[in-house]
Amino acid sequence: MSDTAEQAQDGHEPEQVQAGREPEQVQAGHQPEQVQAGREPEQVSDEERRIQRRERRIAAYRGAERSLARPGFLGTLRERLALLETVSDLYDLDETSDIYGNGIVEALEKKVAGLLGTEAAAFFPTGTMAQQVALRCWAGRTGDPTVALHGLAHPELHERNAFTQVSGLRPVRMTSEPRLPTADEVRDFDEPFGALMLELPLRDAGFVLPSWEELVEVVEAARERDAVVHFDGARLWESTVHFGRPLEEIAGLADSVYVSFYKSLDGYGGAALAGPKTLVDEAKAWRHRYGGTVFQQFPTALSALAGLERELPRLPEYVAHARVVADALREGFAAAGVPWARVHPEVPHTHEFQVWLPYDVEVVSEAAIRQAEETKTLLFGDAWDQKGPGLAATEVSVRAAGLEWTPDDVTAAVADFVSRLGSDFPVPDPAVAQRHRRIRDQNS
User: Fold this and answer.
1) 443: closest CA among 255, 226, 209?
2) Do 443 and 208 meet the contact criterion of CB atoms below 8 Å apart?
3) pLDDT computed for residue 434 by the predictor
4) What is the pTM of this model?
5) The pLDDT value given to residue 29
6) What is d(CA 380, CA 373) in angstroms, rounded to the nearest whole number?
7) Class of residue 23 by CB neighbours under 10 A (exposed 0-12, middle 13-18, buried 19+)
8) Cα four-point dihedral sign 174, 175, 179, 181
9) What's the whole-number average pLDDT of the chain?
10) Per-residue three-class SS string for 323-365
């Protein structure tokens, strides 16, 4: 399960509850509510199926006694508000609340700048806005609105062409391979660009990261072309284990960095743009123009401070245990007799990774939900994507709730999950399997 919800305005449903990414088929003996109410199956629209699956997934999550992660955003309003009852040790609650970005918002900005080792930082209500503003500011400085990025980057897939439609930027795809761009691809790209944007980790490729040496080479290649480097660091917080470097050293490679407060830190929302003071000052002016200087933001700012204090120090532990879970999943599927299964990356780069299985989406989706409903154990809480004929993939996130899972717990849950899939294992199209192996080889 992924750790966060993508912004609704991006047209991207919460990652853990993306029920609408595939049409729902219902296995025998488990009829949808609409059929139970007397409606014929053909009368149920795809949208109704998506809503139904989403509701079942959330209900299964809330009813589960065991899960690998319990992201706060799926909690009730009462549970979310309870977070603010435990923040008195993080900030003086007797101070005047913020107005248009002062007070606690400024305190949060200062803390982020300190963590990332930058001169300044600016709070933004969304990462979508933060990155548009950052790259718009850089375009004004370089004189080039062209932004080189990955074909699987968030702005390309989940932001409704906001770079072009809103900010006058010109995104160009450096590569669409399921890995970060290489230094040679940066050097040899066949047209000029003013900024290189790197998403670290690259979520839609499997939360993958380059090696530290590869990242340094890519940044150097961009600088050779007189381009600035911007990190989409929505999940940068958890990259320290893979890189073996502290946050400030990682962020120090880039000219500017965006970080999220809700994806891994479990805040209510919000983001920050960090970099040189002159850039941040200009970004705050554009934040105002974009409507992002909100009257009061203290609940979100307090939740961000709580995440930085309580979740950030635990992320390395989550990453380490995600690797234990990944090994156990792989062993569990092999022991259960699944013809082939893929945990990607083989050694997770963060506390999130993908699982690929040779089944149609409706089969694995139904099995995952029913397992949680019937056993109160939620192994796969995210939606499944159709990756090809008879091939599905989902995301797995390991957080505090998952730390109590032993390898035996995982393999036992896998065995129960597989028992709900049926005995017929569809064989995926050879071309799809070949692509699957290529992804494995490129990122293992």
Assistant:
1) 209
2) yes
3) 44
4) 0.86
5) 36
6) 12
7) middle
8) negative
9) 89
10) HHHHHHHHHHHHHCCCCCCEEECCCCCCCEEEEEECCCHHHHH
The number of angstroms, rounded, from the C-alpha of 213 to the middle of its chain's C-alpha atoms is 24
Whether residue 197 contacts residue 224, with contact meaning beta carbons closer than 8 Å, is answered with no
The answer, yes or no, to whether residue 14 has pLDDT greater than 70, is no
Phi, psi of 269, deg, nearest 5? 160, -165
Confidence of residue 174 (pLDDT cuts 50, 70, 90): very high
Q: Band of the pLDDT at 423, cuts 50, 70, 90?
A: low
Separation CA 37–CA 32 (nearest Å): 9
pLDDT tens digits for range 186-205: 999 999 999 999 999 999 99
* Distant-in-sequence, close-in-space partners of 374: CB < 8 Å, separation ≥ 6: none
The residue among 222, 199, 194 whose CA lies nearest residue 210 is: 199
The alpha carbon of residue 265 and the mean position of all alpha carbons in its chain are separated, in whole angstroms, by 12
**Percent of the chain residues past pLDDT 70, beyond the cut:** 86
pLDDT at 8 over 60: no
For residues 197 and 264, give the distance between their C-alpha atoms in angstroms, rounded to a whole number: 20
SS (H, E, C) the chain: CCCCECCHHHCCCEHHHCHHHCCCCCCCCCCCHHHHCCCCHHHCCHHHHHHHHHHHHHHHHHHCCEECCCCHHHCCHHHHHHHHHHCCCCCCCCCCCCCCCCCHHHHHHHHHHHHHCCCEEEEECCHHHHHHHHHHHHHHHHCCCEEEEECCCHHHHHCCCHHHHCCCCEEEEEECCCCCCCHHHHHHCCCCCCEEEEECCEHHHCCECCCHHHHHHHHHHHHHCCCEEEEEECCHHHHHHHHCCCHHHHHCCCCEEEEECCCCCCCCCCEEEEECHHHHHHHHHHHHHCCCCCCCCHHHHHHHHHHHHHHHHHHHHHHHHHHHHHHHHHHHHHHCCCCCCEEECCCCCCCEEEEEECCCHHHHHHHHHHHHHHHCEECCCCCEEEEECCEEEEEEECCHHHHHCCHHHHHHHHHHHHHCCCCCCCCCCHHHHHHHHHHHHHHC
Euclidean distance between CA atoms 322 and 287, whole angstroms: 37
The predicted structure's pLDDT at residue 358: 96
The model's pLDDT over 57-84, given as tens digits with 9 standing for 90+, comes to 999 999 999 999 999 998 899 999 999 9
